[in-house]
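Lab notes, practical 5.
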Amino acid sequence: MKLRLPLVLGAAMLSGLAVLPVQSASAVPSTVHVLPTGQGAGLCTDGFVCLYENYGLNAANGRVLLADEAVGWLSDYGFDKIISSVCNHSGTPATLYSQPGFQGVTFTVEPGHCTDVPASFNDQASSLMLD
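Output from the prediction step:
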């Protein structure tokens, strides 16, 4: 039985079929990190979007989520509906959505900008898309 999978994959590749890895919808990306505490734009390294749980990039100190790819459900990291400020060093626009799966009301932060979210969007984000 152990030889069957490599034989099937080998036959598929020889016949010209694409063989792609499959990732489940709930798989957690490896390029997302949560810092238990921290503050300021200096935590947000180049290539990442950083989400802070408090206003002023955690002026009162708090958790920080760093991501360099889309996150369909921030709850996977304990960051659902707690974001108050954002720093975008990704090089591409970063859009927060009020619902999981990139749905609902949006707030976009352009590359190179750090800002508090508007009061109406405070503690509302559930997903993050890097455009």
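Observations recorded by the TA: The mean pLDDT is 83. The longest strand covers residues 32-38.
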